[in-house]
Amino acid sequence: MALLGETLLATIAALAVTSSLPLYLYGAWIVIENDPVTWSVLKRHLKYILTGLALTTIPVLTWMAPRLFDQLSGFAALHAFLGLQAYAMLAFALTGIVRIFLAKRRYDLYHDYDADILLEEIGSENMAFWRRRLRIGVFGYVLFWTLAFVVGLGRYVIKYQPLSAL
């Protein structure tokens, strides 16, 4: 059985990562529900998304990653692999986000939205490409984050047996 301190830290990490899911969902809903995406909508969206990312990334960097090689079993390796894939997809999405943000900012579409200007027509001839990268990256991040989350919860239940204390 794991030490009480280790179980407490694992529980805190699991709760932090779990609490990021509603923030991701609400942040996505903000963008889906608001057309056009103005600067205030974008800031509101990012507030929830970045908080969710922090609640996931801080436990990864402070609790999970430093302990990975000490407990590298098949389940831990799968969890780490899926988590790394999630962050790789996030990096892929960021390449699109940056280009879209710069183009919308250049044309002042966050403050002075013009419905006659199509996003595909501004910035560069590859705007559709950058939007596709954003969509693929976000979808991939959500997919791999969910898989890593399920595997991580499975590892938590097996290793720390939280229901055995009841």
Task: Work out the strand percent.
Answer: under 5%
Count of distinct strands: 0
- Mean pLDDT value: 85
For the largest beta-sheet, the strand count, sense and barrel status come to:
none
Q: What is the straight-line distance between the termini? A: 15 Å
How many domains make up the 3D coordinates?
Answer: 1
Radius of gyration: 19 Å
Task: Please identify the structural class as seen in this structure.
Answer: mainly alpha
What is the 3D form? elongated
Description:
This protein has 166 residues and is an all-alpha fold. It has helices at residues 4-33, 39-67, 74-106, 127-160. It has one domain (4-159). Helix 1 (4-33) runs antiparallel to helix 2 and helix 1 runs antiparallel to helix 4 (127-160).
Tell me the layout of helices and strands.
Elements: H1 4-33, H2 39-67, H3 74-106, H4 127-160
Key phrases:
166 residues, mainly alpha
Give a brief outline of the structure.
The protein is mainly alpha-helical and 166 residues long. It is built from 4 helices and no strands.
